[in-house]
Structures are given as C-alpha cells and as structure tokens.
Write the structure tokens for this entry.
Amino acid sequence: MAVLLKTLVHPRRPPAALGRPLGRREASLGTHAGAAVRVRFAPSPTGFLHLGGLRTALYNYIFAKKHGGSFILRLEDTDQTRLVPGAVENIEDMLEWAGIPPDESPRRGGPAGPYLQSQRLALYAQATEALLKSGAAYPCFCSPQRLELLKREALRNRQTPRYDNRCRSLSEAQVAQKLAKDPKPAIRFHLEGEAPAFQDLVYGWNRHEVASVEGDPVILKSDGFPTYHLACVVDDHHMGISHVLRGSEWLVSTSKHLLLYQALGWQPPHFAHLPLLLNRDGSKLSKRQGDIFLEHFAAAGFLPDALLDIITNCGSGFAENRMGRTLPELITQFDLTRVTCHSALLDLEKLPEFNRLHLCRLVSDETQRRQLVGKLQALVEEAFGSQLQDRHVLDAAYVERIILLRQGHICRLQDLISPAYSYLWTRPAVGRAQLGAVSEKVDIIAKRVLGKDLL
C-alpha cells in the first residue's frame, strides 16, 4: 500500500490501455495446434466442496484432458472474514477422491504458484499501481456510512444501488489532503466508454454496458486485499489461463473484466459460462443443504464415478446422455460446443440407481472386486465387531461370494451391512417373548432344534 500512495499523488493521465487496444475476437475454442490449454477451478474456501462446485471442476478437468492441457486449482481466499476452517484442505481432498486431481494446486505446487490468492498480494498491488498511473483507477475515501446511505436511498427510490463515483473527480490537492487523514483508501476502477463485445463459447455474443448501470467498482480494499474482479483478471493472466469455464452468474461481470484486461493491455482468455446446476424443482443448490456436500456422499458409500455420471447426465455437453459413463468416457465424449444455456436439473433420487450401475462395473473387474472385498470386510468388522460369533464370515472367499451373489440387488456396498443382511454375518438373536408371540409351542420346537430348553 505504501508504494501505491506515491502513485496516488502523481498527475493522472486520462484512462487508456497500457498496451495495444484489444479488438473483438472471433469465437473459437482456442485449442489450435501448439496452443497450451490451461484451465482453472477457483472456488472460495468459505465452505466445503459441494455438487455445484464439483460440476464446474469436472467440466474444466475433462476439457483440459481432452485437449492435453492442465487443470489448475486456485483458491480465492481474499475474503478473510468468511473463511471456513478446513475448507482449503477439504476442497483438494474431495477433488482427489472424485478422481479429478489438479495438475497444479496449493498442495501440489507448480510453475505459476502460489495458488492461494492471499499469498499473491504483491501482484495485485502491482496491477493496481499500473492502473493508478494510467488514470484507470483512483482512490476512494468514502466511509462505510456514506456508502450505506447511498444504498438505502437507492432502495427507497426502488433503484439498483450503485456508487455515485464521487471520488473520481477529486483534484490532486484534495487527494493529497485526504491521504494525510486516511492513508489506506480503497481503490476503484474507472468504468467508462463502451464495453467490448465478446463471444462466449456457450452464450454467444454478449455486451453489458456496465458503466451505464453500475458505479465504479472497488478493485483493491483498504486492507490491501483485492476484490474478485481484479484478482481473477490478474491471476488468470499470470497463470497463463487459456479458457475460463465458470458459472453463468459471472456472465454479466465479464464485460467489466474485459475492461480491466484492456486497461492493463493484456489479452483476455476465452470465456465459457456454464449454466447453473439446480435442484429438481428448479431452486438453487445451497450450502445450507447438508446433503449436497461431497463429504456426505463419500461417507454414505456413493462412488465418485456415480456422482460424476449423474451431474453430467442431467446437463449438456455430450452427443447423447446415458447412464453408466466412466471418467475416460466423459473425457472422450465431451464437446464444449454442445453445452447449452439451459440449467441442469439434478434429481438426486436417481443417484442410487447410478451407483448400482457403477458398483456392478467394479464387481465385474477382478482387481476392483478384490478392493471391494477389503472395504466390505472393514465395514462388517466396524458394524458388528464383537457380535461376530464366527470370524470365518470375514474370509475373503466368503465375502467375495456375497458380493457376487448380491450384485445388481444392492446400490451401495453399505447395503450389505444393513439389518436386512445382518444374517450374513451374525446369528439371529431373538428374545423368548418374541418367539412366544410366533408359536405357543416354542419350547417344544426349541428343544427339538437346539437339544435344550430355552432359558
């Protein structure tokens, strides 16, 4: 911030690009021979990984692998007040569990690191300094109270809240005077001129005149941390991202990002905004739904391939939708040009059937079946423990036979330790009162079967 302060009192030139003007680009997947495909999944660790995030990560992963490219995990942890303990580790853990590990990440490292935005503050300060020097950005000294009043007034008049760009017109003398009192102002980006048109690889030609409907956005907060708009542009540039595949909620903001690219003189990547993944009733997936987190599905015994299958089956991007596709098949069959603008409706009631298909596939493979045997042995030991009168039920041959006999009838391996299948592992324990309710001759039957009287 100290370096930026020197910039603030220098004469400002009119906003202009720092490099050559960037014109419209023709639509293309940008996967020409020799061009490296680099995509990123950039969640915020304000919660654990859920199905919506998994779908965005998956589309990035299969696009990269289809074109021999790299899949990067970048964590946008600039909002320090909302960080959830353990979320950073959980996101990467769950990507690995799902079978789509990143090539570069906070854990794995890589040539474009660090991969936590909180460790890249110098890059954002450098870009902000360049924007201040060119006049494309300016310091904002407005207090939170004033900004809140602007918001309330707009809402009272049934208008969309927006900043009134008050600090944009401050003179150099006024800036210097205010800096003496407030040495750490926020920095805003000067929105002006016509926003560049761009051709989204999913939604087609787009242009959003952000300058006419929005106030100048904050790009660097007073604490030195960037907002999303600056951080994603700077990081995508320095990480060499070729394609940005992200949720359609960011489509409107793309014009703002392109103005930032233009002001910095950088070539923007290709953009493809993915339609939202919604609940079956059309409502948005929410982190408040405890059953949408990957941890829940892993603990419940659902297979990663079943989740990858169902979240692609309900959407677009493939010539045909069919159940039972594996990850290699998803990579081979994926076609970004087939992704439509329609939201994908996720029906989780179908997940058990998807899991049944993928479980049968694993059972049919001898190597995978041996792994299932080991998992089922552990489940039986955990579920019944001391109740196992006969330890021979844990023999690999017996457990494998159970799996082979019940394949197609069960949806999860855990089903085999449910009460309905407990007889496979333990002897039935029935009380005298229960037997008496079945037959009045229970004592005679027991003596003939067991050779002794019931206690």
Q: What stands out?
A: The radius of gyration is 29 Å. The mean pLDDT is 90. The longest strand covers residues 243-247. Residues 45 and 240 are 23 Å apart (CA to CA).
